[in-house]
Specification:
By secondary structure, the chain is α/β, with parallel strands linked by helices. 40% of the residues lie in helices and 13% in strands. The longest helix is centred in the N-terminal third of the chain and has 18 residues, at 202-219.
Length: 768
């Protein structure tokens, strides 16, 4: 697009810029929850508008101490901060003997050297540093890279003759642009920008934006550009210089949006405008760092807006405010290029699946109160995105949801989340009505000893995992039968058997357990043995998979759980469970099971390391199999419970899925499997009863089983209990405004309560 500012009116510029912003970023406006760390207010430069830099006599110390950094970081974390913004003057040790002496006393030769230690302290306290240290050499940039999620340096102006920079040699445009280029060569995501109204002209701004554009296109490291308006301050050289007019400032923002690549985020500080919402009309998509705990030390007279007030104001204009990290999501797609390995655990701690910040303090497996405002509804008059309407049209026409549209739905943020929820719940209502179902069952995890080394599992015990929660155990056949008998006595119609792959088991073990249960309790539905157990059993016996599944069927097995699926996407499985089944092997077990007359379900474990594309691949390959065999009874999303798992303890996994991700995976299941799998189940063990009730309004219709006991999620740290009564299930359904119905494993009406005396008597005989 050719831009000629002498011909374009301001109205046209703003309209074009706003339109471009909408095309690139939709209705999302981001911000970074931060704390401001004024590391040193000494500076060798003297800018005509600056009040941040101070003379040594006005400061108690030249630098923040590491203790102060740690204390501020801890306080900031309590207030929800993620970014530690380190702002400082340039090389004060080269101007002030006091700065040099303080550094020497601390054992450092330079500000940059000490800064790297201070930033490391912030990381230790769980924050991600964003460092604004001015012009830096390649060596200095490399020194700070391991402790910087991102860095920043404002170009301010391409005009090198400005009076305000006469005593500021580090503000030379060429030096600052070179720092940006050097950072690009080192793989450092950078923030830069222009300061409007310091004597610069619109032509200067166009030239400055063009230089930034070239660096962004050549190096890919310009993650955001700030267009900041000059604000005159008392007792400065420019105290009497008027700020830029509103029109001049908004034109500058609009020009930036139109000239810069689509990959660059555009920011304007909300605390420097009387009406931050008017910045949206000029094309910004980001409001920068906003702190709940520290002032803007560069502009202390301008307080940050309150997040809640800003959220409300933006929603009135049709925009959703979402938090982000100090490094933008696109850079997390290439972590080896842009992020030092040492920062990944802290990034994983804060990030969601898409690379934004977690929006709610909600976690699977632990009591978490749902926020009062979960997901914003689309404001009246704001049309849904085209992909959402297209998805609805495809389903209304009887077609399956296309993969590309499912991916867009799974990536929904802001208002679009409610759109996906509403579509999924409409399908639920049409498919299964308003009843909520559950099965009376008992879960029996017969051993936690396992030869496999799945990195997400805190349940299995092997030589390298004895230090994790729990001790190794193996139930005897008599103990298993006693548990089945107890379950039947309490009205269970199903028992679910799963366990680790014990080194002493051969395939006969599973056959013997199935025969014993079926013999003693012929009316109990035996739902058991994951694809891994079945596959390993056949291998250890040296028989064909089909023959082994037939033998299990004849021994009394009725259906298989979908566990051992995790994510059916081999690049993810290579990290989560490298020695386990491949995607093709899991699918083959279930295909063959269906062909010999067994049913099964589909599970997915999500919220650890996968991206949305892996989730969609999982849905697509199981949908294809389900369409071919008609053998799947239900889809069971299983949120990753992170607390005690090896992969999380190593800092290589997220803290489980966010509430948004959890909602969307359930909703996506309803949408993707429409016409293939009718039932979508919620795991109350992982979600809790409040979470389960909420998910019933997002496309789900089943609460799973009463369980009576559960070991796997609780080994990972889940605390939601191990059993629910029918009365408690009824309360969950009632909370969702629905009615409860008991079902069998195959979603049939439950027959009259079965007689249990024969089974109990036989268990007693076996026990004796």
């Amino acid at each position: 697009m050719e831009i000629n500012p002498t011909r374009w009116s301001t109205e046209k510029l703003l309209a074009e810029a706003s339109n471009v912003r909408n095309q690139i970023f939709g209705t999302l406006i981001t911000y970074s929850p931060k704390a401001f760390f004024p590391f040193t207010m000494l500076c060798r430069d003297s800018c005509g508008y600056c009040t941040f830099a101070k003379a040594p006599a006005r400061l108690q110390r030249a630098y923040m101490t590491t203790a102060e950094v740690s204390e501020l970081a801890r306080t900031a974390r309590e207030y929800g901060a993620i970014e530690a913004l380190f702002t400082l003057g340039e090389r004060p040790e080269e101007r002030y003997p006091r700065a040099k002496a303080e550094l020497a006393a601390l054992g450092f030769e330079s500000t940059v050297e000490y800064l790297s230690i201070a930033a490391a302290r912030a990381i230790e306290e769980g924050l991600l540093p964003h460092i604004n240290a001015g012009t830096l050499s390649t060596e200095e940039l490399a020194h700070l890279r391991p402790v910087s999620a991102s860095m920043g340096i404002m170009v301010e102006s391409i005009n090198d003759t400005l009076a305000c920079h006469r005593l500021a040699p580090d503000k030379a445009p060429d030096r600052r642009l070179q720092t940006l280029r050097d950072a690009g060569s080192l793989g450092i995501a950078m923030t830069t920008g222009l300061l409007i109204g310091i004597g610069d002209s619109e032509e200067d701004r166009l030239r400055g934006l063009d230089e930034i554009r070239k660096i962004a296109e050549n190096y890919g490291n310009i993650q955001e550009v700030i267009i900041q308006n000059f604000v005159p301050k008392p007792a400065t050289q420019m105290a009497r210089v008027p700020p830029p007019s509103r029109e001049e400032y908004l034109r500058s923002i609009a020009l930036a949006r139109l000239l810069l690549p689509e990959t660059v985020n555009l920011q304007a500080p909300p605390n420097l405008s009387e009406d931050p919402s008017e910045l949206l009309g000029a094309g910004i998509n980001d409001l920068g760092g906003i702190s709940r705990v520290t002032p803007d030390h560069v502009n202390p007279e301008k307080p940050w807006p309150a997040i809640d007030d800003l959220t409300t104001a933006l929603e009135r204009q049709g925009f959703a405010l979402v938090p982000r990290l100090p490094i933008y999501p696109t850079y997390l797609q290439e972590p080896a290029r842009w992020i030092d390995d040492g920062l990944l655990p802290t990034i994983n701690y804060h990030r969601d699946q898409l690379g934004y910040a977690r929006e709610h303090l909600w976690f699977s497996g632990e009591p978490s109160t749902l926020p009062s405002r979960v997901f914003p509804g689309r404001p009246t008059g704001t049309p849904p995105p085209g992909w959402l309407q297209e998805l609805r049209d495809e389903l209304d026409a009887g077609h399956e949801a296309p993969v590309e549209l499912l991916t867009m739905a799974g990536s929904a943020k802001g208002f679009d989340v409610m759109g996906v929820i509403e579509l999924a719940d409409d399908l639920r209502r049409k498919t299964v009505g308003d009843t909520v179902t559950y099965v009376a069952n008992r879960n029996i995890n017969y051993t936690n000893i396992c030869t496999f080394k799945c990195r997400f599992c805190a349940f299995s015990k092997g030589p390298l995992s004895l230090n994790l929660r729990g001790t190794p155990y193996l139930l005897s056949l008599e103990e298993i039968l006693a548990k089945v008998g107890d379950a039947q006595e309490h009205g269970a119609t199903e028992v679910c058997l799963q366990g680790g792959i014990h080194p002493t088991f051969d395939g006969e073990y599973y056959l013997n357990v199935a025969r014993a249960i079926h013999t003693h309790f012929p009316t109990i539905h035996l739902h058991g043995f994951s694809a891994l157990e079945v596959f390993t059993g056949a291998q250890r016996l040296g028989v064909e998979l089909r023959d082994y599944l037939r033998a299990l069927r004849d021994a009394g097995l009725k259906s298989l759980p979908g566990t051992a699926a995790e994510i059916l996407y081999d690049p993810v499985r290579a990290t989560l469970c490298p020695d386990k089944l491949t995607t093709a092997e899991w699918l083959e077990v279930h295909r063959t099971a269906h062909e010999v007359g067994l049913r099964s379900n589909v599970t997915i474990m999500f919220g650890s390391i996968e991206e949305i594309g892996a989730v969609i691949e999982h849905l697509d390959v199981t949908r294809t199999l389900g369409r071919q065999t008609h053998g799947f009874t239900e889809f069971v999303p299983l949120p990753f419970v992170h607390m005690a798992t090896p992969i999380y303890r190593l800092g290589k996994a997220r803290r489980g899925p966010t509430l948004r991700e959890t909602v969307l995976v359930h909703a996506l299941g309803r949408i993707a499997y429409h016409g293939v799998i009718d039932n979508i189940q919620v795991s109350w063990v992982k979600l809790g009863v409040q979470g389960a009730a909420f998910l019933l309004g997002c496309g789900a219709n089943d609460l799973g089983g009463t369980l009576m006991e559960e070991s796997i999620s609780h080994a990972a740290g889940a605390t939601h209990g191990t059993s629910l009564t029918p009365e408690e299930f009824e309360a969950v359904a009632h909370a969702a405004g629905r009615t409860l119905v008991q079902r069998t494993t195959f979603y049939e009406p439950v027959p009259t309560r079965m007689q249990t005396s024969r089974g109990i008597e036989q268990v007693q005989q076996v026990s004796r």
